């Protein structure tokens, strides 16, 4: 289960500037905390990626082969789990015009 | 999150009268802006506006985090063209959105580079040159008509 975080949460852990976060083991815990504490944002999921698709500017995609931890909207966890074909399919010349359908599991 | 996904989040967050992607008329909108505010002898259209603006009248430089205070000078009853530069390179393209003030603030919070705010009747265009290294933004009037951002701040003329 991905670790959940809340941003902009006062009196918890300072991140940088005015941002604060608190890590939870489960979405339910993070959501409860978010609901009960005014000023918090919706929980985000922390995802460890071994390789990923970067978008340095809108619509321009790069295949980056290095490990990173990134933040996802929780609803993205409903998408099909990515596999070894996801990124090659995304960059394939035969990819659909809306390449994002591949990561959404729609193509 | 990819840019298109961020835009989809905004589409869910704001009704269409507050945030709209001009799918069918985007090229006409950009052409009208280019005709009025950009120099004509350009080989490529819809790219790298910052180097081809007819006018570049500095308004002020602000810390990046104060952009919301500038956007608040716009009328909450009107819509504006918000034009996002994909990056600050010579090949950069521009994406146009039709926004009310709250949607504009949300959109600009995810803008990757420079951006423009313009009157929907093309009376004025403001260029926001983003300096990521210094974390500040230069406000520039790209036309001859005063923009809402030319208004005095706390009684002190811009």
Multimeric state of these chains? heterodimer
Give the overall form of chain B: globular
**Helix- and strand-based class of chain A?**
alpha+beta
Tertiary shape of chain A: elongated
What is the number of helical segments of chain B per DSSP (H or I, 4+ residues)? 4
Main sheet of chain B: which strands, in order across?
Answer: 1-4-3-5-6-7-2
Radius of gyration of chain A, in Å, reads: 16 Å
Percentage beta strand of chain B: 15-25%
Average of per-residue pLDDT values of chain B: 88
Helix content of chain A: 10-25%
Average of pLDDT of chain A: 84
The counted number of beta strands of chain A is: 7
Alpha-carbon distance between the termini of chain A? Answer: 26 Å
Low-confidence regions of chain A: 7-11
Q: From the alpha-carbon coordinates, what is the Rg of chain B to the nearest angstrom?
A: 15 Å
> How far is the N terminus from the C terminus of chain B?
37 Å
The ordered H/E elements of chain B are: HEHEHEEHEEE
**How many β-strand runs of chain B?**
7
List the uncertain runs of chain B. Answer: none
Largest sheet of chain A: 5 strands, antiparallel
SS-based class of chain B: alpha+beta
């Amino acid at each position: 289960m991905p670790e959940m975080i809340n941003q902009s949460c006062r009196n918890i852990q300072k991140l940088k500037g005015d941002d604060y976060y608190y890590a939870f083991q489960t979405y339910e815990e993070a959501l409860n905390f978010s609901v009960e504490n005014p000023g918090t944002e919706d929980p985000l999921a922390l995802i460890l990626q071994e390789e990923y698709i970067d978008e340095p500017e809108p619509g321009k995609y790069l295949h980056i082969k290095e490990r990173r931890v990134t933040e996802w909207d929780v609803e993205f966890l409903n998408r099909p789990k990515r596999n070894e074909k996801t990124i090659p399919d995304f960059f394939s010349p035969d990819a659909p015009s809306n390449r994002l359908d591949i990561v959404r599991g729609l193509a | 999150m990819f840019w298109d996904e961020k835009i989809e989040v905004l589409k869910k967050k704001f009704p269409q009268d507050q945030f709209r992607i001009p799918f069918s008329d985007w090229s006409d909108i950009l052409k009208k802006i280019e005709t009025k505010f950009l120099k004509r002898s350009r080989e490529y259209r819809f790219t790298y506006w910052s180097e081809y603006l007819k006018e570049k009248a500095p308004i002020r430089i602000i810390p990046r985090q104060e952009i919301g205070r500038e956007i608040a000078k716009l009328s909450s009853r009107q819509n504006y063209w918000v034009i996002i530069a994909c990056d600050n390179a010579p090949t950069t393209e521009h994406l146009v959105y039709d926004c009310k003030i709250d949607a504009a603030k949300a959109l600009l919070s995810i803008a990757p580079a420079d951006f423009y705010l313009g009157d929907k009747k093309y009376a004025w265009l403001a260029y926001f040159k983003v300096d990521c290294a210094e974390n500040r933004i230069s406000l520039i009037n790209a036309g001859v008509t005063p923009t809402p951002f030319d208004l005095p701040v706390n009684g002190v003329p811009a």
